[in-house]
């Protein structure tokens, strides 16, 4: 990106166009020298731009101390930057900054207008899905993105389908992908090129492809050059010289617990009781770094993709399927290479001894979470072979059952101690779908149940990640790739505390542990207790920040390494190398520190650069997963709706309010004509419903946080859009 130099510094801020007499819409950008000077003097702020998806005139950049957000009002103020871009913002009008030295960033009054003066990095893909509109007598067509945060784009007619000008109506419902190529300072419209036609709007595959392209998820087939890096002579077997270097655990009772549909099995568990009553517990992770050699084409593509992306109907893998579903996946009854951490634990979960190393395992059974759950719920039962997947005859079913029960008992203790020690978990409702095997259309949906079997696996993965973080940081204080979780934004927490005080909710937001404790203290004891907790959990998750990968050599203060939610000083990701590139780097650091792998050739800067890239890709993949779920729910509402559900109010605005639809865990905004609102500072709306009998007075309905309402979800005219309609309160309830 180079700053536009159409205007010399003397013209800055004036609306003199660089192109004849055309009026400037946007200011020219500052030069990079002016920017670095202004940042040093504290007159400019750098940060990531967030544009409100519901009100695209509003945008925000975090303040330098990250305690609050700085508001940018209107499209002109954003100066052609798009959502996610790293921008530099001017705090005061430019001429004032030249004459006064008081515009230090800390003193920003609310009413100061802020403008983007430079784009440091265009993080937004500059690709958008949308629709084409024919403009008579123009050499271009108008592209309207579905995402209103992206400007409308002029595209050359030559890019459009051949019969577009003669039959524009045929394309009203066709979804296209367009890429912005330029956005001149004297135009409200960007220039762009049409990349491709996706197909009918509202259909799952075209919509999915649009999401993937817009969020820069690489779903192309792996190139021959990449596939050349994979083992050639199949079926592959472990070379004898590799066998000799590793701890052989193939005779141990080791098994996997995963979702029933999982094909990339990253982790396996083992647990055997020792004569003294303690336990030998192992976490065994697929040894992906054995197959992915640092610096080869496979490594390069994996590092670019950085994560597998899980859509409702499919996975876009980080690694070729031969690795993620076969050679690396810890499938049952085959020898697999692993990286293990093995502890001696007391029944309470206290670590007495710890061993890291490369190993070989042979999983004796692939359990689903449902299988493990049924074992936990029936500790005395003798399971028959028909009730479970095939089990290695070397290990009787009963041995596996006992290991699951022992792991569950230890996990319960580990978990209890974590929360006593001050950890926090914000469980948000997660929607899952049942799909038709032929059409892959949603047949039904349900809220995913997070149960003891999930918690069992989670506890040992956390234990392994924490152990690994401590080990690699000790060995590589300047190079370790760790994961930190900054504390929530202070200003938003203060506002939340104020709201809770007004609503009479006793909640302590002063630390992660106290917040967890308050959330798990019942809110009343009726059938809606859990709904109130869900709403409050949603409210508490808004001030939370994202957890981030970082290199320890770059973040100087050790207290900034901390993971807020887990409440641990050091944390990393080690347990999912098939689907996360960060874990592969961690495996390489670990292998190097144990002298069972090559020496690390990475510099602090390279680790930090990769960490930052993993953060970007992780955020994009999270958004893509949410959009995939929204897409399928939109189709479900269209195919199976209208759907009725109870909903609970989460927040109240001037002319609308947000609800959590309890049956489906989705959030929706309901717009209404209001008779009165916000009495004092307490957020509430009063709705008036005309009475059914003309002589009766209207029925009042008061809406405030935690109000229970009945809603109906129904499809809109626009493809896949649906709205929540408030149902009339029963007169008896008023």
TrEMBL record:
Record flagged with keyword 4Fe-4S: no
Predominant place of localization: cytoplasm
GO molecular function terms attached to this record: 3'-5'-RNA exonuclease activity; magnesium ion binding; poly(U) RNA binding
Cofactor(s) the protein needs: Mg(2+); Mn(2+)
Record-annotated site: Important for catalytic activity: 266
InterPro entries the record matches: Dis3_CSD2 (IPR041505), DIS3L2 (IPR028591), Dis3l2-like_C (IPR041093), NA-bd_OB-fold (IPR012340), RNase_II/R (IPR001900), RNase_II/R_CS (IPR022966), RNR_Ribonuclease (IPR050180), Rrp44_CSD1 (IPR033771)
Gene3D superfamilies in alphabetical order: 2.40.50.690, 2.40.50.700, Nucleic acid-binding proteins (2.40.50.140)
Top-level taxonomic group: Eukaryota
Domain RNB: residue ranges: 246-596
UniProt entry tagged with the keyword Cytoplasm: yes
GO biological process: cell division; miRNA catabolic process; nuclear-transcribed mRNA catabolic process; polyuridylation-dependent mRNA catabolic process
Location of the region described as Disordered in the Swiss-Prot/TrEMBL record: 1-23
EC number: 3.1.13.-
Pfam families hit by this protein: Dis3l2_C_term (PF17877), OB_Dis3 (PF17849), RNB (PF00773), Rrp44_CSD1 (PF17216)
Transmembrane segments: none
Annotated binding of Mg(2+), by residue: 258, 267
Location relative to the cell: Cytoplasm; Cytoplasm, P-body
Keywords, sorted A to Z: Cell cycle, Cell division, Cytoplasm, Exonuclease, Hydrolase, Magnesium, Manganese, Metal-binding, Mitosis, Nuclease, RNA-binding
GO CC terms: P-body
Annotated function: 3'-5'-exoribonuclease that specifically recognizes RNAs polyuridylated at their 3' end and mediates their degradation. Component of an exosome-independent RNA degradation pathway that mediates degradation of both mRNAs and miRNAs that have been polyuridylated by a terminal uridylyltransferase. Essential for correct mitosis, and negatively regulates cell proliferation. 3'-5'-exoribonuclease that specifically recognizes RNAs polyuridylated at their 3' end and mediates their degradation. Component of an exosome-independent RNA degradation pathway that mediates degradation of both mRNAs and miRNAs that have been polyuridylated by a terminal uridylyltransferase, such as ZCCHC11/TUT4. Mediates degradation of cytoplasmic mRNAs that have been deadenylated and subsequently uridylated at their 3'. Mediates degradation of uridylated pre-let-7 miRNAs, contributing to the maintenance of embryonic stem (ES) cells.
Family per similarity comment: Belongs to the RNR ribonuclease family. DIS3L2 subfamily.
Domain note: Specifically recognizes and binds polyuridylated RNAs via 3 RNA-binding regions (named U-zone 1, U-zone 2 and U-zone 3) that form an open funnel on one face of the catalytic domain, allowing RNA to navigate a path to the active site.
Protein name: DIS3-like exonuclease 2
Organism: Oreochromis niloticus (Nile tilapia)
Gene it is expressed from: dis3l2
